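Z., the sequence and structure:
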Amino acid sequence: MNRSLLRWARVVGPALLLAVLVWRLGTGSFLNGIRTIDGGALAEAAGIAVLTTVCCAWRWKTVAGGLGVHLSLRAAVAAYYRSLFLNVTLPGGVVGDVHRGISHGRDVRDVGRALRAVAWERSAGQVVQAILTLGILLALPSPVRSSMPLVAVGVAVALCCAVLMAKMGPDGHSAWARVRRAAARDIRDGLLARRAWLGIALASALIVIGHTITFLLAARTAGTTAPVSQLLPIAVLAMLAMVLPSVAGWGPREGVTAWAFGAAGLGVQQGVATAVVYGVMVLVASLPGAIVLLVAWFRGTRLPARNARRPLREGAAHA
């Protein structure tokens, strides 16, 4: 029952947030954002997405290889595009990642390890994103700057506690001990291996930079003329909100962007328009994933048909 309620909350919460924004601001801000979009901006966003998706795929390939599951870069790029498309078109925001892990697991006949590779790959990216976000929010003026020293202390304490719990965790054969050992092994082999950790960190940083540039491009496309130093903290806050459950990517992003723009004196409506432009850019940039899905569906329908026709041909030959 609790799991069912949690599932519903992941969808209903973002939907209610969108409904509140429409109720308070009307549809004008959303429509204005859509009207400002042009082909050039979409092409630039799609080009940035190619680079970030390749970085994502390479990070996933590296982590999976460290955990002992083979994955080619070509297959990783195609699967990641498919994952992005599913994430931005289906509720929850993680359906594509789950599908990516299960599909790869079936290919290598180890679904559990493949799912762990996806989970650790996404976790590594979020850790790097959090570190960069914290640094930017500490360095540049933002609506949350006054709270950032306290947040930094809290993060440092939490990390220290996590390290101590990992070192002082129970030994033996308890469930917690097995989980702790498995997690430590995955982190050691998949994330902190000598030839992996620096590349994973660099790829994650490039991904965050690419997404940030796309957000700044969306703000300019929506008509925002504020300096980059003022928009950058808003961008990282908006991207942090994108980690939360959403309705096909919508909900928390629009709410946080609207609040941040309003708190920065740039206008709540302008924040919603920027978030809408960004959402459309991300959707268009993920469309190669739809092509991957269509190709897989077409192959899946063709193969059974060929197998069904083969016995008839053999029977005709014998006749």
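The longest helix spans residues 287-318. Residues 312-319 have pLDDT under 50 and may be disordered.

Let me know what you think.
H.
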